[in-house]
Specification:
Bound molecules: zinc ion
Number of domains: 1
Strand content: 15-25%
Structural class: alpha+beta
Shape: globular
Number of strands: 5
Distance between the termini: 38 Å
Strand order of the largest sheet: 1-5-4-3-2
């Protein structure tokens, strides 16, 4: 399968327009780990149940919570393009739950 690319402005991961049409200012984009699990960016410990810890190597991905496409921040920063790294199930399962926890914390 050919790699899909989202629109991105320069190397700014927050400027992604996902292939599904979602952006930061629509449904939002979530920082995730290499499995596509939303990471916890706050200062509290322990990490809230359901979220992943901030990766020690700072290797972050950007998850579209609308369609589950995941983009690799390092690739965007280095190439100024946003190929889809992989896609996760955001309708059910642990990632859907993590997305819910993420939004609960940020409201
Ligand atoms: Zn999307």
């Amino acid at each position: 399968m050919d790699t899909e690319f989202a629109d991105v402005i320069g190397h700014d991961v927050t400027s992604i327009t996902c292939l599904c049409g979602n952006t930061v200012s629509k449904e939002g984009l979530i920082q995730a780990n290499s499995q596509g699990v939303p990471v916890y960016a706050g200062a509290n410990t322990p990490v809230p149940a359901g979220l992943a810890a901030w990766p020690d190597d700072e290797d972050l991905y950007t998850l579209c919570p609308s369609c589950g496409r995941v983009y690799h921040d390092t690739v965007i920063e280095e190439t100024e393009t946003a190929p889809v790294a992989f896609q996760v199930d955001v309708a059910a399962g642990p990632i859907a739950e993590a997305i819910r926890v993420h939004w609960d914390l940020s409201t």
